[in-house]
Amino acid sequence: MHSMTLVELRDGLQRGDFSSRDVVAGLLERIEARDGELNAFITVTAEQAMDVAGRADDARANGGAGALNGLPLVHKDIFCTRDVLTTCGSRMLEDFVSPYDAAVVERLASAGAIMLGKTNMDEFAMGSSNETSYYGPVRNPWDLSRSPGGSSGGSAAAVAARLTPAATGTDTGGSIRQPAALTNTVGIKPTYGRVSRYGMIAFASSLDQAGVITRTADDAALLLKVMSGFDERDSTSIDHPVPDYEALIGKPIKGLRIGMVRQHFDAGLDEGCATAVREALSELERQGAVLSEVDLPNLDYCVPTYYVVAPAECSSNLSRFDGVRFGHRADNVEDLLDLYCSSRGEGFGAEVKRRIMTGTYVLSAGYYDAYYLQAQKVRHLISDDFRRAFESVDLIAGPTAPEPAFGLGDKTDDPITMYLNDIYTIGANLAGLPALSAPCGMVDGLPVGLHLVGPHWSEETLLQAAHQYQLVTDWHKACPEAYK
Amino acid sequence: MSAAASGWEVVIGLEIHAQLATKSKIFSGASTAYGAEPNTQACLVDLGYPGVLPVLNEQVVRMAAKFGLAVNAKVAPRSIFARKNYFYPDLPKGYQISQYELPIVEHGELFIRDADGNEKRIGITRAHLEEDAGKSLHGAVEGSSGIDLNRAGTPLLEIVSEPDLRSAADAVAYMRKIHTIVRYLGISDGNMQEGSFRCDANVSVRPRGEEALGTRAEIKNLNSFRFVERAINYEVERQIDLLEDGGEVVQETRLYDSDKDETRSMRSKEEANDYRYFPDPDLLPIEIDDDYIEAVRETLPELPDAKERRFIDDYGLKPDDASILTVNLSLADYFEAVAEATSAKPQAVANWVIGDLVGALKRDSMSIADSRVAAADLAVLLDRIADRTISGKIAKEVFEAMWNGEGSADDIIEARGLKQITDTGAIEAVVDQVIADNPSQAADYRAGKDKLIGFFVGQVMKATQGKANPAQVNELLKKKLAD
Hints:
The complex is a heterodimer.
Chain A: H1 6-15, H2 20-38, E1 41-44, H3 46-61, E2 72-76, H4 103-110, E3 114-119, H5 153-160, E4 166-171, H6 177-183, E5 186-189, E6 209-214, H7 217-227, H8 245-248, E7 257-261, H9 271-286, E8 290-294, H10 302-317, H11 336-347, H12 350-363, H13 369-389, E9 395-399, H14 415-420, H15 426-431, E10 435-443, E11 446-453, H16 459-472
Parallel strand pairs in A: 2-3, 7-8, 7-9
Antiparallel strand pairs in A: 1-3, 4-6, 5-6, 5-10, 9-11, 10-11
Chain B: H1 3-6, E1 8-19, H2 58-70, E2 74-75, E3 78-79, E4 82-85, E5 95-98, E6 105-113, E7 119-131, E8 135-141, E9 144-148, E10 155-161, H3 168-185, E11 197-207, E12 217-222, H4 225-244, E13 252-257, E14 262-268, E15 278-279, E16 286-287, H5 290-298, H6 304-315, H7 319-326, H8 329-341, H9 346-363, H10 375-386, H11 392-403, H12 409-415, H13 424-437, H14 439-446, H15 453-463, H16 470-482
């Protein structure tokens, strides 16, 4: 049962093949048995999950069940969950029990979904390997010596290892898609403003967007429909109609225009990955998609732009963690300045500190114009690149990450190499575009992801392309041997 | 030595913080009511909890636009919120949401009267929206400081003047004018005791005739007109003394200590924060179109200057009285209500309102809204003077009785038997009697001691307990004594 998708579980529950209690109990047992080696969870909410499962079974019996009734999932520990520990992967929030639910948590719960626990992540979502977590790195189920990617590494590893059929994640520069690619899962980052950010602990507000990690495009469609929509508590959420994604993805892709990004296949891309992605595109072509090449001339500026904008916003967003009202507070401080310095010094890890310092620097008097303002201008140019590309194609495609999963510790000494792992994904965040990664091959037993980016509000097209691809391929069904 | 006499010119700019009179905060639904138990009016947004987001209270946009139109400013079609980053325990998020580049109001002006009574234009550089911080309560908790975040997130309009003010008196006149305007507009209660209206003063001096501005000091958080005047005067003298002794003014922030009547250094420019302003990514730009501005313009009340002009032109009031009456909208409304309802002359109404009514209010520390004599009732009293039922002097007595809740003017006049005697026959009888009782004075008067008329009037009034109509008494006495 643990390898079933959400859609399969939903159908089984409806047929009465098993109960939500059976499903949840089975998965909790599996988490208990297998998470020791993966470290994908920070908190497992077993008792609560069993309670909710019981209620879901009752609701189903009484005929009053929501769209996700009784279906299990996990939340990245960046989402605030009422009365449950919410750490954001940081020592700073080691003891933080949120007094409220994030909008995403609320929407999924009110549709009947059951939270099994909260997943490990890079500290405050700052990282691409899950190694910056205060709670230790997550291991990739495909090879325990490797990283599952980050920052939503715990979510991706848990889905890949069949500890849960689905997980929420957040994506600021690739934090859903890159781990999805590295773990053979589907990850979608919706259009900026599609899903409410209320209750999602902010890293870089203008780039952060919540999404999901699942094993099929179908499941992603099911969850996204529930999560999406306007929320008056988030001024940047947009009142745009939410289509019935699940119903729309069944359409064939004949005539869909897909642009291959010329620059994505330049030097820097692993050869095996390049081959897998080209092969996936050929498959889409066989189904009727029309391939062409497109240019994103400012691709090289994505990473530098991101590493000005994101740290700038994070340096301000993380100021609230000052040891005064909540979070870690240092003992035996001498005065106010000492309270701030010691609490933050002890509470934050090295990568978070590095980004706060970078962000503080680029916003400082005398540097603001040269860095922050300049980055905003380049951000416009990057958005323009995408806009131009979408004049001739419906989606653009390329690899999600430049290489398959890398070894834990391989990049920790060199932040720049680590940052470059997000080179293909960051553009979508800078331009606020929806993007998806889907399994499309293997290199030496390690998964490769196909990256699709669409214009604003094109989630249904992304999911449709991925779903049609999954109807004729089996890559997404591949499961690490040890977790079958 | 006064600045004016010393050859120094004083240059002042004010930053006024007016708390906007909204029910809920600028970015959250928590109440803004004053005086609640500490931290009972701070929700998760005000506390800066992880994951929470600000949502703009649309009311504040309307209020800021109203202010902009009232001071003949440009209301920006697009303005943006920015974060002002600094650490302080009463600032929950570690940044204050304010406006930096692109404020909502720019390029306004208003007119004050300087010490010589001349009208003077004061430029308003800008007015921007921002949230207030909380309050640190030192000593509230034994051995440590407490924080009250009730005020955190309270909406403020910060109004920045050009450095057009040339004296403490100018500064006070300007601040009073802004105070009057925001209360006319109903966008702030202007309550200075509760901190709803306060200012920072940027003060510098330069040798008269010099173009370049001197180095300025900023005096923080002045919350009364008196403190503004005294703090600026102290600061001007301090700077002049310093410069005349060959010293230099340091650019710094200073605090005014009202107990010692002095300013003292808080922090210098070197210690000043780099606030790292940048656009707040959690909030969309405020976008206002012409229709919105026109709709706001429709809601503008008559403004103080226009009202003052009208009181002079239409009611024929003395300029000073018109000015006094229009400082406070409620007072102006009261005056107009009386003036419209009575047959007494508007200037007489103004005299009564400014003199007796305001006097009584001050004596009992009441505001016009709580006046114990309603406008309609005062109008009746003034009618009784006009129709000669009572004299102006008796009216004072009636007013006091009305103030003390003894009833309407007519009831009191009736009950106390204060009705003026206008029956010529009755007065004539008393006049005859008084003349008969005082033959030697009558003789002296007739011999040319005109001043004795006062004595006779006094005697008649005494005999009628003040109720005889003074004009009639005068007339009759003159006639009879001439016989």
